[in-house]
């Protein structure tokens, strides 16, 4: 899940059931007391999406019963990745973002979320009559016609002839029909395993939404063909990919088309995996893979190490100022042959004065400190037997190395 995705924390179904009677109808209480819905029930999943759109984005949406239900965690993962990609594009800060959504579905899900969340403008295309009509109603009902231009297109077209080429677009996005309408059923390449249609979306999607001649690879191939004609009008082209096996042939097509750079990402939401591909023909944009923290491939960051030095451990119990403690910690690190690289300027951290040092341990100098201190004591008392050794307070240094700050 993208680190900025608000559904990293799943919605509280109990709270939704209490607030929305239409959701309550689908909520079931388990023996444990936990409230659940049946994700195989299209009506339940549809109601979940509509109440979340209402509660979290102030969007009133009515979804038709026989069309694909847009689940929000995946839709937001795709939009958030586009937000990340736009960081790689130099653009005037006051310039309004304008995107294109190819095949916008039954409620213009990406344009309405992006308009509410980011105030972006969109041109959205749709080939299916029912989806086009429902999307238009959604835009009217939510006063979003000033943000979204909806265009009815034919399914044998992609971008060419459908968009206004006198405008400059920041990106295109697309959730294509994943399956091949010519195959007897949605099968994997090996034909061994049936691939699910729109998993966890309640399975209410129509064939025109989920299947197309040649499947997603052919659909994206048509898109790449159109991109070449429109490369001066669009900065970044993107698409979602439903099957991992489609990524390699699409990347070959991008290379053949002369894309300047491209990158990919994973959209992980529960057990459903999707992929995102972005490419550009602009030689000023260098797209690089971004794996947002928190996605599957990212190792969990270890918790920060914190250590409280008790007052009794200091000789000088009177001076416990930040500067004095900092000096002592630095001395301690230097005595352990740790390279202290930089002392940051004072900064305010939540109102508390704080300081930081960056340090590097080149070898393990902190183990067996007690034995080393005993040896040192014996050595110094032999060298300076006229000087009585000060009784030193014990500082526990037999700890793991302190990580770089
Ligand atoms: C998988 S659905 C995605 C809908 C929506 N974007 C979403 O993410 O929920 C694909 C959509 O593309 C539409 N579509 C198929 N071919 C198209 C084409 N050539 N141009 C525009 N829309 C098309 C379908 O009618 C369908 O609504």
Task: Give an overview of the whole structure.
By secondary structure, the chain is of the alpha/beta class. Among the domains are: 60-184 and 191-280, Rossmann fold, CATH 3.40.50.150; 307-344, no CATH class. It has eleven helices and 15 strands. The chain has helices spanning 13-19, 21-24, 42-57, 72-86, 109-118, 129-141, 207-210, 215-229, 247-257, 322-335, 369-383, and strands at 28-29, 35-36, 98-102, 121-126, 148-152, 169-174, 179-180, 211-212, 234-241, 261-269, 272-280, 339-343, 347-349, 352-354, 357-360. The strands form five sheets. A seven-stranded mixed sheet has the order 5-4-3-6-9-11-10, with helices on both faces. The longest helix is centred in the N-terminal third of the chain and has 16 residues, at 42-57. The model is unreliable at 186-202 and 381-405 (pLDDT under 50). Bound molecules: S-adenosylmethionine. Its EC number is 2.1.1.-. Residues 363-405 are annotated as: Disordered.
Summarize the structure.
The protein is α/β, with parallel strands linked by helices and 405 residues long.
């Amino acid at each position: 899940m993208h680190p900025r995705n608000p559904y990293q924390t799943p919605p509280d179904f109990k709270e939704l059931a209490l607030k929305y009677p239409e959701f309550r109808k689908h909520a079931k209480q388990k023996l444990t007391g936990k409230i659940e819905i049946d994700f195989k029930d299209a009506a339940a999943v549809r109601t979940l999406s509509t109440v979340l759109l209402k509660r979290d984005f102030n969007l009133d949406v009515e979804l038709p019963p026989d069309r694909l239900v847009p689940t929000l965690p995946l839709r937001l993962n795709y939009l958030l990745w586009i937000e990340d990609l736009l960081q790689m594009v130099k653009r005037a800060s006051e310039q309004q973002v304008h995107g294109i959504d190819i095949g916008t579905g039954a409620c213009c899900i990406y344009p309405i979320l992006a308009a509410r969340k980011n105030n972006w403008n969109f041109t959205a295309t749709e080939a299916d009559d029912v989806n086009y009509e429902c999307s238009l109603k959604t835009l009217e009902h939510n006063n979003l016609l000033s943000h979204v231009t909806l265009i009815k297109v034919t399914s044998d077209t992609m971008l060419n002839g459908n968009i206004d080429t006198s405008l400059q677009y920041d990106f295109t996005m697309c959730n294509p029909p994943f399956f091949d309408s010519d195959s007897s059923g949605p099968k994997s390449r090996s034909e061994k395993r049936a691939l699910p249609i729109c998993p966890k979306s309640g399975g209410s999607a129509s064939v025109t939404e989920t299947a197309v001649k040649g499947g997603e690879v052919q659909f994206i191939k048509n898109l790449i063909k159109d991109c070449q004609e429109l490369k001066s009008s669009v900065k970044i082209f993107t698409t979602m990919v439903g099957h991992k096996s489609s990524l390699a042939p699409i990347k070959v097509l991008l290379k053949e088309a002369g894309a300047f750079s491209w990158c990919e990402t994973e959209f992980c939401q529960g057990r459903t995996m999707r992929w995102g591909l972005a490419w550009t023909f602009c030689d000023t944009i260098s797209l690089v893979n971004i794996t947002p923290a928190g996605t599957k491939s990212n190792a969990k960051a270890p918790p920060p190490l914190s250590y409280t030095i008790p007052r009794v451990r200091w000789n000088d119990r009177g001076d416990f100022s930040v500067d004095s403690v900092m000096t002592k910690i630095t001395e301690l690190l230097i005595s352990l042959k740790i390279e202290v690289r930089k002392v940051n300027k004072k900064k305010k951290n939540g109102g508390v004065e704080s300081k930081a040092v960056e340090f590097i341990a080149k070898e393990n100098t902190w183990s067996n400190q007690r034995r080393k201190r005993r040896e040192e004591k014996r050595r110094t008392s032999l060298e300076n037997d006229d000087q009585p050794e000060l009784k030193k307070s014990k500082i526990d240094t037999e700890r793991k190395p302190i990580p770089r700050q």
